[in-house]
């Protein structure tokens, strides 16, 4: 049985394909079309998945979509009538629902017009389409790939199918929903509104507020708490005075594929916190303190949601998904601030991951099939052989050399020790927002100037944003206050005080690091590279940041080479091929 699963007509559009419940491939549309957070129908991602499975669309048994236009339908109508939601917003939502309902036909037509598809598609057998509610897709994307047979489940994001939060219990191949928070109340909207107010207007900019927060003091917590209320039932609600969407709806567009959300904060919000910062305006102490306060309040809400869920269920394991699950700072504190003992966050906890979740929910929950044994599944994208890469480099008249693995690890680590910045491209591309050693830019974490070097040579990004440490799993307890498996760079932990001077390039201003623990079984070549660096330096860590330059993470050798050529990167590694300046 083949299931093609889609996150479509939504930010971070993506596709995944399963054969008898086993994930064959998954990727985000942005990696192929090169538009960040691309929204719409993921045509190229779907085509890639079909190619990886070796089938045509006609051979797909089911298409699952991580949206359900019927979800909370009556609630939607009642809310629209009570709130007097603008006609334009209602019309936009209705048009979006119609797109979802015709998705199989739209995909077939788009594949025919795609540059990737070489032969015309005459769809004589149409796959059956199943619509899976957005937050159930999030929950499934975490629980059904987790190591837990039984766990509490929490999904928190902006909005999807008229919900922003959902809590549940997972047992075996079943998910039982306990409760939810309905639109317009949303922790994601809360965080996005402050993100926009602080001068970060782009879709997905919330991580910038998270990175800025440690530079401020949470001196505005009481004022921020007036915008969101904790409830006795463990849930929360927004104060409608401070958010425009209660009356006007969420005005979202994706012209050219790039999603855009109009400002969510109201005039009362501006009266309370002062004039909004413009994106080119300097950051001052007020902005930094507000970021710290917003992060603190966001964490309070997450901890209450989780702790109340633990008390209700008595379970010790938590699976977390949704856009707010990308808040790795909060994730790193959940076990310490709740009664949960273990936390699992998938590699794509954001909306792209719902493509995986919708397929798994249908296969396990609706069809009753058993779960597969646990294994890490982050490397599900495209890969290229040494022969393919060699042919491409020849076509570009680029000077290069081939090294075996032992020579390669020596050469790369030597360049890093000499202050070099290396583009590292190998294996299958990662699924999710983090580079995990297959599409990464690497540097020496011991260099105090590494952050400035990276921003000068490549990234050109805000100085307050940290870079991540990839650490050999066996050394995590030696360097970090918490000993945990963090394979997807999904948690921020305190670095031990005596280790911070050793790795200044990956130590944030508050003494933390967003770590990735690397195990040999998950990524043997990346593990071997870090181990070679450890043999030379005594430090089992590399600075790892995503291989890109203000664009989606590179996907192909062409993307990697173009990024190398237009920046001041010192070395490019494409599998076993090395390109030098």
- In spatial order, strands of the major sheet run 15-23-22-16-17-21-18-20-19
Low-confidence stretches: none
Total number of beta strands: 23
Using only C-alpha atoms, the radius of gyration works out to 23 Å
Find the structural class using helix and strand composition.
alpha/beta
- Percent range for β-strand residues: 15-25%
Continuous helix count: 20
Question: Per CATH, what is the topology of the largest domain?
Answer: Nucleotidyltransferase, domain 5
Number of structurally distinct domains: 3
CATH superfamily of the largest domain: ATPase, nucleotide binding domain
Q: What is the general shape? A: globular
Give the CA-CA distance, first to last residue: 49 Å
What profile does the largest beta sheet have? Answer: 9 strands, mixed
Question: Can you walk through the features of this model?
Answer:
With 581 residues, the chain is of the alpha/beta class. It is 36% helix and 20% strand. It folds into three domains: 2-135, ATPase, nucleotide binding domain (Nucleotidyltransferase, domain 5, 2-Layer Sandwich), CATH 3.30.420; 146-345, ATPase, nucleotide binding domain (Nucleotidyltransferase, domain 5), CATH 3.30.420.40; 386-580, Carbamoyltransferase, C-terminal domain (DHBP synthase, Alpha-Beta Complex), CATH 3.90.870.20. Helix 6 (134-143) crosses helix 14, helix 7 packs antiparallel against helix 12 and helix 12 (285-313) packs across helix 13 (328-337). The longest helix has 29 residues, at 285-313.
